Structure formats: C-alpha cells, structure tokens
Amino acid sequence: MTPPIRSLLSLLPLLAAAAAPCAPEMCAPGAGSSICPTATRGLKSEPQTDEPYLENVYFRNASPFSVELLHVDHTGEEVSHGFLSPGLRRGLPTLHGDVWRARALRVGQTGDRRLLLEHRIGVVKLKDCECQQPSFVDCKKPPFKGPRDQLINDPVVFENHANAPVDLYWWNGTCEELISWDEVGGVQQHARKPILSTQGHNFRVREAYSGRMLMQHTLNDLVIRSCEEDAEREAELFALQEQAWSLEAERGLLREKLAGELSKLIAQIGVQTASNASGVAYSVSVNGFATESSAISVPSLRVLLLTEK
May I ask which residue range the UniProt record assigns to the signal sequence (predicted)? Predict the structure, then answer.
C-alpha cells in the first residue's frame, strides 16, 4: 500500500467522528428533539455489574398524556415499571448498560403505545459538535477534592470521542470550574473520566490546548415529550374542526337568507288579485318581476319555510 493511500485511510476515523451528528441539547441547555423515536431492533439491557456504576435515572413526563415506563430486560422484553402522569417526575435505580423506554398511554385513541423515549444508561460520549462559542469565565477556585457530604451522588462517566484531549468544566451559570484537573494534558482520546456529581449539574467540554468548547452535557432528567407526529395530527384535527365550524356558520347564514327570500315571496303572493279564483297567482321570477304562475297557497309556503329551518 502506497504512503498516500495509507495516509488517506488513517484519516477515515477522524472524518467519521467529525461527521457524527450531535443532538441539539449538546450545544444549548434545555434544547431537545420532538421527533418520534423508533424502537431499535434487537436492543436489550447489558448491565455492567463488574463496574460500580449503579445510579439513579429520573424520568419527567412533559407530554400531555400519561406514559408507561418500561425496562428492556436482557432478552429484549419490555417489563413495566408503572405509569407516569403528565407533569410528574420519578427516579428509579439502574445500572450502566440498562435500556429504558417510555410509551404513550392513550387507550382507545390514535397513538396508543407509541414509543416516545428509548435510552441506554451508559457513558456520555464527548464529541466535537461545532457549537457556538460562549465566553470563558474562570471561577478561579482551588480544585474541589471532597468530601461530598450530604449530597446525593449521581455518577456520570465521560468518554472522549473527540479528536483531541479535552478538559471538563462544571458551569454554574456564571463561571466555569475545572474538574478534570488531575488529568495532566487533559482527558486523552478514548479515555474515560468518572465524576461523582448531582442531578442538574451542567458540564462544558473544551479542547485542552485551545480552550474551544466542543459540547456540553447536563446531568438532567430523561424528558418524555409528545413527538411531532402527535402535534401534526392534533393540528390537522383542529384545522378540520375549524373547517366544520366555518361550514356550520355558512349553513346558518344560508338558512337565514333562504328564510328572508321565502318571506318576500309570501308577501308577494299575499298581494293577490281576483284572478286567484281562477287558479292564477303572481310569483316572483328570477329577475325580480311578477309573473303569472300556477297558484300556491300561503300555508304551503309556510310549511316549506318551517321545513327548511
């Protein structure tokens, strides 16, 4: 193999890593996708019992309907862990490698059992997401070395999949505090960095040499959202309802107009001449002029008017 070809092949992993898509929340806190997920075929839990990564997983239902929380066991079967009403939050113990799903509970309605969330508990892969660059403000604090008294430990494990060593910072909303201070030269490529943290902490990942922010990660709830398919369907149903209301209003106006025209016709017939005795009456033609026609009784028109109403 010639040297140029060997050089090009060595770049393929870097190009693949650079092309890896990043979720919106990896650059902006609170962002999230509302696209309906699809169940991964053959996915099952593979808990890593040899590593002490027991943790809590927190589900928050931000959808407008109840959901069922499901643990996918080692055979791929979904095991129910109860239901979660809209707006509520629940924590469950879990292991790294566990798979969880949430499905819509809409009995008798379209979208019942639709998959809203699928998530495997595991490492947080650090990537270069080409985020907008927020200004760096150093907290200028000495490294925190513990102990973490009276705090709930929610462990998180980072794994560097970026193309360069990285530094990990805790961002408190105002400034950033270096938490990977014990990694000389930064967390190296493909290396792991376990951190004892607390739910709600926000981390920023910066390239060790340049300080450029690559991505961020919030140790947050698994938010269950109503997906776009539901929103689109609800919008379609609302549009159809508005159309029905409009047609109903138009129908009412037509009834009123018909009633008015029939009243005019009755008034015209009421002005009859002596020729009515011979069975000749006057009716209103399309052009508005009175013409001779077969006689029709006023009571019959009144019955017709009541029928149309």
Answer: 1-19
Residues 6-26: tens digit of each pLDDT: 544 444 444 444 445 687 778
Q: 100-135 in b/e burial notation, b at 16+ Cβ within 10 A?
A: bbbbbbbeeeebeebbbbbebbbbbebbbbebeeee
pLDDT tens, position by position, 58-71: 999 999 999 999 99
**Dihedral sign (CA 235, 240, 243, 248):** negative
CA distance 35 to 230: 10
In this structure, what token pair is assigned to residue 166? 């990285």
CA distances from 127 to 101, 158, 165, 179, 216 (A): 25, 11, 11, 18, 9
pTM: 0.59
Do 102 and 68 contact (CB within 8 A), yes or no? yes
One-letter amino acid of 274: A
